[in-house]
């Protein structure tokens, strides 16, 4: 009986929209709470008030929600028109970082624009723009029936140029996310598996070369194997080691909200890259599993909405957005649990970061709009309003 009920619930397209909104809302709310908890000590020490960082996150959330609501109302034709400009816009915002004195370097990566009162990370916005552009190109190919045009030639060169611009700022983490988005779009476009496998191997070789040719990256890459090693613990092993200590000390139900010990200077970037560790320490295994369930629900709903879309650009874009959120979550949680090297990417909707939050919520606005354009979803919503 329970299985039948679950199948009936998942079979209704309108429920995929509700799952998207509820999971995204829950992650955003949890993000505000945990950003405040994780950043309070750092904010008090550096800015004089414990609320300094969470207020910024809240302001960005307030800006993102009406923008996403507006984007959800755009038609497929309007998105296609915007998608044409995605590549050009991505180049424009990333080139700003190359202007002397404009790009700000954080932890060795020059990928921020300093506006004095807040910073903007153009690469986060470029992820969304490139997904829209590639989806537009793939949709044109599908609608024209010109399947002789190889998808690799169609979108890969543009992505490679964007990756080049990102790597000029030495941001390997963001470059990795963009590369996987490209791989995901190529896969859903129907590229031959042999070609896809070859591309993945070449990509892995390039990634390995970038790691091996940089002693700092090489050390960061290897230290995750044993962050507690005496020669690494007080240097590059400090972050992953204290991340694991925080997760281990949380137990089943955690030490309580606000009770993290690691955020007291032991865990740098506690409110950004390592917020998952603070969640594990304060909310325990139950809290971390809750986050995983919410992220899985969000990703599942994105792909289900995309599969029902009638417009090919919408299908491709939803796939790209789903891959984006999935790979970034995987990299962030993998870094926090020391299953992967520290790559310096945020946990979508949860970590502190105005650019990432606005870009992600706008992307989810696109997905919500795709659901609202579904005739069956609209009928169900009208029925509920009439009751």
TrEMBL record:
One Gene Ontology BP term is: cell division
Pfam families for the chain? FTSW_RODA_SPOVE
EC code(s) of this entry: 2.4.99.28
Instruction: Tell me if Glycosyltransferase is a UniProt keyword of this record.
Output: yes
Membrane topology per the entry is:
Multi-pass membrane protein
Q: Which domain of life is it from?
A: Bacteria
Under which pathway is this protein filed? Answer: Cell wall biogenesis; peptidoglycan biosynthesis
Q: What is its main location?
A: membrane
Q: Which residues cross the membrane?
A: 17-38, 50-72, 78-99, 150-166, 195-216, 283-303, 315-337, 349-372
Which keywords accompany this UniProt record?
A: Cell cycle, Cell division, Cell membrane, Cell shape, Cell wall biogenesis/degradation, Glycosyltransferase, Membrane, Peptidoglycan synthesis, Transferase, Transmembrane, Transmembrane helix
Q: Which reaction does it catalyse?
A: [GlcNAc-(1->4)-Mur2Ac(oyl-L-Ala-gamma-D-Glu-L-Lys-D-Ala-D-Ala)](n)-di-trans,octa-cis-undecaprenyl diphosphate + beta-D-GlcNAc-(1->4)-Mur2Ac(oyl-L-Ala-gamma-D-Glu-L-Lys-D-Ala-D-Ala)-di-trans,octa-cis-undecaprenyl diphosphate = [GlcNAc-(1->4)-Mur2Ac(oyl-L-Ala-gamma-D-Glu-L-Lys-D-Ala-D-Ala)](n+1)-di-trans,octa-cis-undecaprenyl diphosphate + di-trans,octa-cis-undecaprenyl diphosphate + H(+)
Q: Does the keyword tRNA-binding apply?
A: no
Known InterPro entries for this protein? FtsW, FtsW/RodA
Localization annotation: Cell membrane
Q: What does this protein do?
A: Peptidoglycan polymerase that is essential for cell division.
Family annotation (NCBIfam families):
ftsW (TIGR02614)
What family name appears in the similarity comment?
Belongs to the SEDS family. FtsW subfamily.
Q: Protein name, please?
A: Probable peptidoglycan glycosyltransferase FtsW
Query: Which species expresses this protein natively?
Result: Candidatus Planktophila versatilis
């Amino acid at each position: 009986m329970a299985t039948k009920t679950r199948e009936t619930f998942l079979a209704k397209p309108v429920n995929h929209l509700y799952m998207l909104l509820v999971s995204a809302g829950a992650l955003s709310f949890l993000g505000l709470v945990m950003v405040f908890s994780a950043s309070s000590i750092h904010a008090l020490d550096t800015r004089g008030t414990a609320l300094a960082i969470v207020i910024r996150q809240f302001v960005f959330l307030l800006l993102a929600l009406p923008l996403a609501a507006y984007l959800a109302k755009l038609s497929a034709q309007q998105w296609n028109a915007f998608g044409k400009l995605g590549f050009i816009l991505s180049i424009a915002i990333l080139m700003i970082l190359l202007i002397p004195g404009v790009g700000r370097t954080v932890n060795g990566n020059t990928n921020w624009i300093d506006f004095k009162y807040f910073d903007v990370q153009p690469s986060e916005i470029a992820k969304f723009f490139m997904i829209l552009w590639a989806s537009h190109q793939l949709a044109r190919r599908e609608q024209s029936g010109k399947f002789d045009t190889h998808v690799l030639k169609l979108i890969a060169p543009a992505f490679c140029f964007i990756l080049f611009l990102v790597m000029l700022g030495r941001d390997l983490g963001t470059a990795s996310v963009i590369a996987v988005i490209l791989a995901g779009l190529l896969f859903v476009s129907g590229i031959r598996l042999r070609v896809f496998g070859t591309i993945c191997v070449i990509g892995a070789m390039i990634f390995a070369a970038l790691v091996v040719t940089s002693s700092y990256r090489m050390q960061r890459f290897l230290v995750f194997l044993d962050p507690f090693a005496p020669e690494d613990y007080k240097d590059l092993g400090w972050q992953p080691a204290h991340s694991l200590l925080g997760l281990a000390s949380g137990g089943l139900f955690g030490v309580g909200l606000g009770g993290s010990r690691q955020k007291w200077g032991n865990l740098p970037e506690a409110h950004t890259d390592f917020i998952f560790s603070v969640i594990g320490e304060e909310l325990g295994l139950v809290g971390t599993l809750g986050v995983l369930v919410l992220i899985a629900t969000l990703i599942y709903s994105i792909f289900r909405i995309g599969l029902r879309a009638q417009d090919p650009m919408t299908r491709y874009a939803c796939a790209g957005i789903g891959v984006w959120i999935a790979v970034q979550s995987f990299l962030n949680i993998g870094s926090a649990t020391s299953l992967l090297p520290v790559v310096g990417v945020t946990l979508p909707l949860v970590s502190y970061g105005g650019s990432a939050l606005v870009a992600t919520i706008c992307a989810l606005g696109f997905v919500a709009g795709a659901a609202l354009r579904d005739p069956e979803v609209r009928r169900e919503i009208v029925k509920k309003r009439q009751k």
